[in-house]
């Protein structure tokens, strides 16, 4: 799916392979997630001045007071969504940012819908994603608290910004048997995993401590 007409960048490929080894050492085991992260050029999603740091395991600034998430946290959340080798199916991502995680998701999900509340950031994500020619990623400008009722239900939902409570609309848009992962909390946050039972009911599990930018309301 990645456009092979772009010149390969061996330095970036080596740095990326080291990042994958680091993720393995930290306990990421899901080969489909590791393979997806090995395919997506993270350096193409950050500003040129930061490109040399793109494969460090750290969050990096994106402008607009937002950050591209730390690779370990991206891997951990995607591994939770894919737990047990489940296909991700139709995915909603809230918080497109620079588009990096959406690109990784495109390797794992049949369809990716990604929402961003800041129009200028969505434009940047669109131009970052264009050269990769990922046919299954759709970008939407809007408030992710509301989800995309016209496209729901989603098999998987992932939030890249922290909320103090689970957005009600998103729970309604999670298919039966589906899974959602999100950072929950304000000053102290954890990853929350929500499983929608096959016959109804929601099971919540609180996992690792994390630090994300806040989920805000409205658009700009
Ligand atoms: N997944 C991104 C990380 C983005 S950081 C990446 O790979 O780069 C979180 C993003 O969530 C920010 O861009 C922020 O503007 C966005 N965001 C915050 N609240 C939102 C909301 N209610 N709806 C949609 N996007 C939101």
How do you describe this structure in short?
The protein is α/β, with parallel strands linked by helices and 220 residues long. Helices cover 27% and strands 26% of the residues. The radius of gyration is 16 Å and the shape is globular.
Structural description of this entry:
This protein is α/β, with parallel strands linked by helices. It has a single domain, classed as 3-Layer(aba) Sandwich (Rossmann fold), CATH 3.40.50. The chain is built from six helices and nine strands; from the N terminus they run ααββαβαβαββαβββ. The site of S-adenosyl-L-homocysteine has 23 residues, from strand 2, helix 4 and strand 4.
Ligand names: S-adenosyl-L-homocysteine
Overall mean confidence score, pLDDT? 95
CATH class: Alpha Beta
CA radius of gyration is 16 Å
Assembly classification = single chain
Q: Briefly note the structural class of the backbone.
A: alpha/beta
Q: Write down the secondary-structure element order.
A: HHEEHEHEHEEHEEE
- CATH superfamily, by name, is Vaccinia Virus protein VP39
Note the total helix count. 6
Percentage of residues in helical conformation? 25-40%
Distance between the termini: 32 Å
Most strands sheet: 7 strands, mixed
Beta-strand residue percentage: 25-35%
Which sequence of strands runs across the widest sheet? 5-4-3-6-7-8-9
